[in-house]
UniProtKB/TrEMBL annotation, chain A:
Annotated transmembrane regions: 6-25, 37-56, 62-83, 95-115, 135-164, 194-220, 240-262, 274-292
Keywords on record: Cell membrane, Membrane, Transmembrane, Transmembrane helix
Annotated compartments: Cell membrane
Pfam families: BPD_transp_2
GO MF annotations, alphabetized: transmembrane transporter activity
GO cellular component, one term: plasma membrane
InterPro entries reported for this sequence: ABC_transp_permease
Identification of the protein by name: Nucleoside ABC transporter membrane protein
Membrane-topology annotation of the record: Multi-pass membrane protein
Superkingdom: Bacteria
From TrEMBL, chain B:
Pfam hit, one: BPD_transp_2
Name of the molecule in the record: Nucleoside ABC transporter membrane protein
Compartments (UniProt record): Cell membrane
Primary location group: membrane
UniProtKB/TrEMBL annotation, chain D:
Topology relative to the membrane: Peripheral membrane protein
Record-level Gene Ontology MF annotations: ATP binding; ATP hydrolysis activity
Major place of residence: membrane
Domain ABC transporter: 5-239, 256-500
Organism lineage string: Bacteria, Bacillati, Bacillota, Bacilli, Bacillales
Keywords in alphabetical order: ATP-binding, Cell membrane, Membrane, Nucleotide-binding, Repeat, Translocase, Transport
Statement: the UniProt record of this protein carries the keyword Lyase: no
Record flagged with keyword Cell membrane: yes
PANTHER family: CARBOHYDRATE TRANSPORT ATP-BINDING PROTEIN MG119-RELATED, GUANOSINE IMPORT ATP-BINDING PROTEIN NUPO
Protein location: Cell membrane
Species the sequence originates in: Alicyclobacillus vulcanalis
Gene Ontology CC terms: plasma membrane
Protein's name according to its UniProt entry: Nucleoside ABC transporter ATP-binding protein
Length: 305, 357, 337, 506
């Protein structure tokens, strides 16, 4: 049986992380009321600069920090346009996605040439969790995974706690639900929206860096391959909660892994690769049902003064 | 005044983007004047280039109409790309079957097949699940889009639509279904008067439908306030399905027109991304079908001009994406201009006040 | 070894009058060469990139060559992009990929004075169109022989007893499948009972997916991974490296990606074909029709083997090569499912 | 007496509207200062400026003698100003407790939810505003939401309290509790700015009244000695008829019959539990009841917006239980829904589109699916004139109208459809006396013309002054039906709490 192959669980987790992190990021942004479809672009930025800084400094951790900083800066541009200018957030996101795809490819080619990033770029370590990795069957999930998998899982749970159990989290959510009401209570709407968007940049960038220096040590042009958009779907699927997003990402990761594992039995790979998409629709239609966005999601707030 | 502003602002914003892009390009060691010169001449420089620009904008315009329609109905159809491919696939399939039909009828069949396929693709799964289960259309249309593209791929990669031989492509559609190109004027561009006529018709139909019919009234009501729509006796669920189906219909039509007018067969490339660009086209047009024409042309010009920029100025393709992204971003930020003007005025009036009081 | 075009004339194409390169380099007349990539773009880590490398090499070595590249964004761009160059008076327009076949036929007829080269497709009967066809299944076959030898006789350390190798394909399209078919056939010629896992990622730039597909195959016992998937394949090679198993590169010598992991690479000299055609146009010796690149003219082949293999491997490879050249072995280009 | 808050020649202009155009106001310590004015006079705007939500165009505000320049409500809150907003500033997705403490939550980094609940519970007990701190605000009735708004203001212990129409949705009992609180504050020297359209409330609670008209303060007078009539006349600038004349009823045959109707609300709770009633031609049947007792679900079900789980709805002898809302509209049901912005209007449509909202499929507004905009415009022009909608411009979006004028548009639309039955849910919510007078006149006109009117209101006075018969609803059931003539507040008040009427006939 396929499921008795523990590899599928390890694959599930490692495919879910780069979806879950940007999805959680998007959750932060949209919970404060800024629609974020720029995860794809920010992931690319994170992936590229993760490699670039890792190579330049010879230290993958600095690479990760570089990725986070660049991702946050990109998100800052989105935040500025969405918050200060009240621009259409979908347009901004699309602009950023195209910009990021162009910029990273351009820099890849001018800085590293067409044959790709240097092969001696350091990557982040992979770890096994001593003890857990010995558990038969599911131990493989905790064996030799990128350190970012573990960090990512911690971050996701932390995010959930932050958003739903802290004062700041409550305030951020209030801003995305009814900014005017929040404003009348003295809550700084714009500042919290900036915070939400920038956090989305940070998480998306980590998701991108996971691809480039977490499981690999190189960048190829457009290497995110639409994961930012799937993350968007995971965020909605997860009803704009970090744990929900993680769950959605796991379902997606699992069905993708299923598509991989099922290959080689004569069924067209094109058909097999429909599995995650079809399963998502089925799950959505059958189990999850309605997911309602934060009430003020996508609506600019202009204090009318 | 408002109308004038709505034209001037995006133009001014594009200029800002162009200036910023120019600085960037210059910083990278290219000559901005020649880069932009090649962009503009590549888009409009001669009739052939103009033809290419028009050709590139037609699918964007037609899909953009559908997306505008879905937005006006309160729905975000993010999966137009897949609907486009399904429409193209259906049109091609009809195009190389039924060859005994007279050419014009066969053509109509192809177009109808494209439209119906697109409408079904968006209407059935995303439409029904949205209406009855509340499944979010962003997810369903996106997933269906991926499925559409994989399905089309399957069909021509060893599937039933693969042409004999080893190349994954469909047979060519019957020659009498292929739109004729302009014989003069737009020489050597793949611009067809029929494609243009269909696009023009689509614009008029979309506009008329949205603003002049009870259906459009209902759709817009549902989009703006579903509760009030229900109160007004509009069947909200039906209109959700209708809105998505109509949106898919336009995308499917675009696919059919592209196949009949330009590609003539299903080719294994699947990277047009028209469906995504068309979202920006619709949004920048504020979902107004007439304005979609202008923003569609704008993006068509960016595409063809961008290709020419690579040739004439030796700018890598990626840099044209950087510029395109910047332009989209700043056109999105067009409101910064009145804001800055207002801020400046206020400061001036403040300064005028202070000594007085 | 690098993705070398430093030995530009090594792969002489079939009909060029080879020996005049020195005289032409001094008197080289100015020609303009345009390259149109398919939608994969220059970053495809495959034939688009290789064509570009060949063109750059020509520009470096041959005086008077002006080059320009345009990367197509969609299929509908092919005709406009090809016409663009033709209209601008380019002497040679290179179209990369069989997807552009129809576009080339159409445009070439409209611009009879411009020369065209199409990679990976055979167009005949148009006087200004040359095509370059690569028998990459032959390269795949030789790589398969190497893999089979290593597998069967446990020639490298960590080779397990599963007798399994894995292929990660980018997409089920001819330029990919021909490599795979040859590899399959070559592998089975040495190790008839061995297993070849074949999976397709359906993408050419998703390194992460490449890595994950490879991991899945490794989990099933594969210890030699042969990715034919452009940038996606780089991820597969790196996955093999992390898992301490082996890989075989594709298109160019990819041993630099993971020294000690890449056993060899199946090579297709797109760069050479481009270089030679540019030179021919400059020399005035352009010839239309199909140029076949295969083992006989070193248009395809395999890269130097990893160190530490016994000479028996090289002998087997050479023997297979002879048999192919002599026609004793016919290498199929369709994958056995 | 020391002035706490002073507003000097304040102006606040919106594009095209001078909402405040020369406002002068002085609020003294420990006084309840009422602000009166027609809809759109600029009361809320003034309060928002004071609260820092809007930046004044000109003029100044002094608080405790110091010039106050609030850049945001944050500054105002810090300066000690609290405000209950007319349009709820609530977050439906959060709980009552979260809404109340937001911005000043207990806890360190962590939000101490338990403590928040405790404080809110205590607060609600202290002020007699019973509410479940853990309920989600979106699930509450508007009346309960109003309580949350008030609790929010009390939580912050303001030094100046602004109440913008706080009683619009309160029951008489709750209003009385609120007044007690206001008196306690007053005793502690906290001045209260109190806005209400209910003149008797103003007369009861306030010390002084400032009347606004068209953005200007007209006059400030002591409440002592003022009468409803003088105040109304001052506000409107003309003579207002406070009590509408009602000729004796000439009731005819039943127009609408409801039999044993059961309805679930959108959140699946059964809200109407077997209601039967009859509305005859030529009568106004009033439904009295405390908010949340099923009266609005009943209205929705009759209009077809909620499905009848069981029972029957009969219109003029015809069973319409399973007809669509559109079909019911065609057959002669007109409906003024309770929430005008959520249900009654498409706010981003202009007035011409809004007046045809219920009839756009019919001639002359459309023919064979094609709209006739000109017909809509000329119709809109007529209605706007007839109902004195201001500003009289059919191209204006509904969102740009004041609440009172929005209500006029809905009423104009529904009344002019020449219906057989008009269901009017809270038709005068938030309207000024002049506008209320207009609405009441329209309802009586319809009745006199032989139409049936089902009036649902939380205002007992409104029910008492208009209804020919009064049905009282409690917990989804009709407790009793009494004659409009002899009914008293006390009698109805008792029935509203569930006690059966003695002489009730259903
Ligand atoms: N943000 C705004 N933009 C434009 N006009 C506004 C805005 N807010 C209020 N107005 C207009 O200003 C005027 C005063 O409105 P305001 O809300 O202060 O009236 P009000 O006295 O509170 O009325 P009501 O009794 O109905 O609450 C109205 O004409 C209104 O339409
Ligand atoms: Mg008000
Ligand atoms: Mg009001």
């Amino acid at each position: 049986m396929i499921f008795s192959n523990p590899e599928i669980w390890a694959l599930t987790l490692s495919m879910a992380i780069p979806l879950a992190l940007p999805a959680v990021g998007g959750t932060f942004s949209e919970r404060t009321g800024v629609v974020n479809i720029a995860m794809e672009g920010i992931m690319l930025i994170g992936a590229f600069f993760g490699v670039a800084f890792s190579y330049w400094t010879g230290n993958a951790w600095i690479g990760l920090i570089g990725a986070i900083v660049c991702g946050a800066l990109t998100a800052l541009a989105l935040a500025w346009g969405a918050i200060h200018v009240s621009a259409d957030q979908t347009v901004l996101g699309m602009g950023i996605n195209i910009f990021a795809a162009g910029l990273t490819t351009f820099l890849l080619n001018t800085l590293f040439g067409y044959s790709g990033t240097p092969v001696n770029t350091p990557k982040l370590p992979s770890l096994s969790i001593p003890g857990l990795d010995r558990i038969p069957y599911i131990g493989v999930i905790f064996t030799n995974q990128s350190v970012l998998v573990y960090i990512g899982i911690i971050l996701i749970f932390l995010s959930h706690w932050f958003l739903f159990s802290t004062r700041l989290g409550l305030r951020m959510r209030s801003v995305g639900e009814n900014p005017l009401a929040a404003d009348t209570l003295g809550i700084p709407v714009w500042r919290l929206r900036y915070l939400g968007v920038i956090l989305s940049g940070v998480f998306s960038a980590i998701g991108g860096a996971y691809l480039s220096i977490g499981i690999l040590n190189g960048f190829t042009s457009n290497m995110t391959s639409g994961r930012g958009y799937i993350a968007l779907a995971a965020m909605i699927f997860g009803k704009w909660t970090p744990l929900g997003s993680f769950g959605a990402a796991l379902i997606f990761g699992f069905s993708t892994a299923l598509g991989i594992v099922l290959q080689g039995h004569g069924v067209s790979s094109n058909i097999l690769q429909m599995i995650p998409y079809a399963l998502t629709i089925l799950a959505l239609a059958g189990l999850i049902g309605r997911s309602t966005p934060p009430a003020a999601d996508g609506i600019p707030y202009e204090p009318r003064r | 005044m408002k109308a004038l502003q709505s034209i001037l602002l995006p133009v001014a914003a594009s200029l800002v983007a162009v200036v910023i892009g120019g600085i960037l390009v210059a910083a990278l060691g290219y000559n901005p004047v020649s880069v932009y010169g090649s962009l503009i001449s590549g888009a409009f420089g001669n009739l052939g280039n103009l033809g290419n620009t028009l050709t590139a904008s037609l699918p964007l315009i037609i899909i953009g109409l559908g997306i505008a329609l879905s937005f006006q109905s309160g729905l975000f159809n993010i999966g137009a790309d897949g609907q486009y491919w399904i429409g193209a696939t259906a049109a091609v399939w009809v195009g190389y079957h039924f060859t005994s039909l007279p050419g014009w009828l066969h053509m109509l069949f192809c177009l109808a097949a494209g439209m119906i396929a697109g409408a079904i693709w968006a209407g059935i799964v995303p439409g029904l699940t949205k209406a009855f289960v509340g499944a979010h259309e962003v997810i369903t249309t996106m997933m269906m889009s991926y499925i559409a593209i994989l399905f089309a791929r399957y069909l021509i990669e060893g599937g039933p639509m693969q042409e004999k031989g080893y190349i994954p492509q469909s047979p060519l559609i019957a020659s009498n279904t292929q739109f004729p190109y302009f014989t003069q004027g737009f020489m050597r561009s793949q611009l067809s008067p029929i494609s243009m006529a269909i696009a023009a018709l689509a614009v008029i139909v979309a506009w008329f439908l949205l603003y002049k019919t009870t259906l459009g009234f209902s759709l817009r009501s549902v989009g703006l306030n579903p509760r009030a729509a229900k109160y007004a006796g509009i069947r909200v669920k039906l209109h959700i399905v209708l809105a998505l189906a109509l949106s898919g219909l336009f995308a499917g039509l675009a696919g059919a027109v592209q196949m009949l007018g330009v590609d003539h067969q299903l080719l294994d490339g699947f990277s047009s991304n028209y469906g995504y660009t068309a979202i920006v086209v619709a949004l920048l047009a504020r979902n107004n079908p007439l304005a979609v024409v202008i923003s569609g042309l704008f993006f068509g010009a960016l595409t063809t001009g961008g290709q020419n920029m690579q040739i004439a100025s030796n700018v890598p393709a990626s840099l044209t994406n950087v510029l395109t992204g910047l332009i989209i971003f700043f056109v999105g930020c067009e409101r910064i201009i009145p804001q800055v003007i207002g801020w400046y005025r206020r400061r001036r009036s403040l300064r005028a006040q202070t000594p007085a009081s | 070894a690098g993705c070398g075009t430093n030995n530009s004339s090594s792969g002489t194409s079939t009909q060029n009058s080879g020996g005049t390169s020195n005289s032409t380099s001094t008197t080289g007349k100015t020609i303009k060469v345009g390259l149109v990539t398919d939608t994969g773009g220059l970053n495809d880590n495959s034939f688009n990139h290789l064509a570009y490398v060949g063109m750059q090499e020509a520009q470096k070595q041959l005086p008077g060559i002006q080059t320009s590249v345009v990367q197509s964004q969609s299929e509908s761009d092919y005709v406009p992009n090809l016409s663009h160059f033709a209209q601008d008076g380019y002497n040679l327009v290179i179209a990369v990929g069989y997807l552009m076949a129809d576009a080339v036929q159409q445009v070439a007829k409209e611009y009879p004075k411009t020369h065209f080269l199409i990679i990976d497709d055979s167009i005949t009967g148009i006087p200004n169109v040359a095509s370059a066809i690569f028998q990459s299944q032959q390269a795949g076959y030789l790589a398969g022989v190497v893999a089979g030898m290593v597998q069967k006789d446990h020639l490298l350390k960590n080779i397990n007893n599963h007798n399994t190798v894995g292929v990660v394909g980018g997409q089920e399209i001819p330029p990919v499948d021909s490599y795979i078919a040859g590899f399959q056939q070559g592998f089975h010629s040495v190790d008839p009972t061995g297993k070849v896992l074949i999976e397709y990622t359906n993408s050419f730039n998703d390194e992460a997916a490449g890595s994950q597909y490879a991991q899945n195959e490794i989990a099933q016992g594969a210890d030699i991974i042969f990715p034919v998937a452009g940038g996606t394949g780089i991820g597969s090679i790196k996955a093999a490296q992390s898992a301490k198993v082996y890989a075989i590169g594709v298109d160019t010598d990819q041993s630099y990606l993971a020294p000690g992991t890449v056993i060899t690479s199946a090579i297709k000299r797109v760069d050479t074909s481009v270089f030679d055609t540019i030179k021919a146009v400059q020399d005035g010796t352009f010839k239309s029709g199909v140029n076949n690149f295969d083992l006989s003219n070193d248009g395809v082949g395999i890269a130097p083997l990893i160190s530490g293999l016994p000479s028996s491997v090289m002998n087997a490879v050479n023997q297979a090569k002879q048999q192919i050249l002599s026609g004793k072995i016919q290498v199929s280009s369709t994958v056995q499912k | 007496m020391d002035t706490v808050l002073e507003v000097v020649d304040l102006k606040k202009w919106f594009p095209g509207v001078k909402a405040n155009d020369g406002v002068n106001l002085a609020v003294r310590a420990g006084e309840v200062h009422a602000i009166l004015g027609e809809n759109g006079a600029g009361k809320s705007t003034l309060m928002k400026v004071i609260y820092g939500l809007l930046e004044p165009t000109a003029g100044e505000i002094k608080l405790f003698g110091q010039r106050a320049q609030f850049r945001s409500p944050r500054d105002a809150i810090l300066a000690g100003i609290g405000m209950v907003h007319q349009h709820f500033m609530l977050i439906p997705a959060l709980t009552v407790a979260e809404n109340v403490v937001l911005g000043d939550e207990p806890g360190g980094i962590r939000f101490n939810r338990r403590e928040a609940v405790r404080r809110v519970r205590e607060l609600s007990e202290r002020y007699g505003l019973a509410i479940d701190p853990n309920a989600k605000v979106g699930d509450l009735t508007v009346g309960l939401q109003q309580r949350v708004e008030i609790l929010k203001a009390f939580y912050r212990k303001a030094r100046v309290l602004i109440l913008d129409e706080p009683t619009a949705l309160l029951t008489p009992q709750e209003t009385r509790e609120l007044f007690n609180i206001i008196r306690a504050l007053k005793a502690e020297g906290v001045p209260v700015l109190f806005i209400s359209h209910k003149l008797d409330e103003v007369l009861e609670i306030s010390d002084r009244v400032t009347v606004m008209r068209a953005g200007k303060t007209v006059e400030t007078l002591d409440t002592k000695g003022a009468t409803p009539q003088t105040l109304a006349n001052l506000m409107v600038g003309r003579e207002v008829v406070l009590r509408v004349e009602k000729p004796p009823m000439k009731a005819g045959s039943p127009a609408l019959e409801v039999r044993d109707l059961r309805v679930r609300s959108a959140d699946r709770h059964e809200r109407v539990k077997g209601v039967s009633l009859t509305v005859r031609r030529g009568e106004i049947l009033g439904i009295a009841g405390i908010d949340g007792n099923g009266q609005f679900e009943l209205a929705d079900a009759i209009a077809g917006l909620l499905r009848a789980e069981a029972g029957q709805i009969v219109l003029d002898g015809r069973d319409i239980t399973h007809l669509s809302p559109a079909e019911r509209t065609e057959l002669g049901i007109a409906y003024v829904p309770q929430d005008r912005q959520l249900d009654g209007l498409v706010l981003s449509f202009d007035l011409a589109d809004n007046v045809i909202l219920r009839d756009f499929r019919r001639q002359p507004f459309s023919r064979r699916g094609i709209l006739n905009r000109r017909a809509a415009e000329s119709y809109a022009k007529r209605l706007i004139e007839a109902f004195d909608v201001r500003p009289p411009d059919f191209r204006r979006k509904a969102s740009e109208l004041s609440g009172g004028n929005q209500q006029k548009v809905i009423l104009a639309r529904e009344v002019s459809r020449d219906p057989l039955v008009l269901i009017a849910a809270q038709p005068t919510r938030g309207l000024d006396v002049g506008a209320i007078e207009g609405v009441h006149r329209q309802l009586i006109r319809l009745r006199n013309e032989g139409k049936a009117v089902l009036l649902i209101s939380l205002e007992l006075d409104e029910i008492l002054s208009l209804s020919d018969r009064i049905a009282v609803m409690h917990d989804g059931e009709i407790v009793g039906v009494v004659d409009g003539e002899g009914a008293t507040r006390e009698q109805l008040g008792l029935m509203m709490t569930g006690q059966r009427a003695k002489e009730g006939t259903a």
